[in-house]
Amino acid sequence: MVVLVAVVLLYLGVEALTANRPSSTVPTVDYAADVPAARKAAGFDLVAPPRLPSGWRATTVGLTGSPGSHWHLGVLTDKGRYVGLEQGEESVRSMVTTYVDEAATRAGPVDVAGRPWTTYTDAGGDLALVRRAGRTTTLVVGHDVPRSDLMSYTASLR
Question: Domains in the chain, start-ordered, CATH in brackets?
Fold first, then answer.
């Protein structure tokens, strides 16, 4: 009986060490393939990063609605933290309420690549950079993402 238990435990140990498990259950998407068509269809100057920082990967992408289009790009950082890019003709308040928290606190202005952005924070660890240009609001929000990483990502938007 002891030998049988040892064989079963050995088998389970080997199986646990050699099993092929996906590194993430969240699929990666090719956002760059969607950008040209989304730019044509959007009623605003749609922005996206030309490439993602090393180790980051896109997980969701889409342009919804017309008129009143809304662009979304969701990515995970190399540490598995979420960063969302939201863009549309919604008001700043509406975007902050929807994608950060309705109790988010306006923390003040920052300069990102020579352009003014406003920062918002919430109690849950979210930091958002928001910019209004004409009728278009662009919001970049990160959950537990270092401020410098979020600012670099935002500066890369074209």
Answer: 24-155 (3.40.1000)
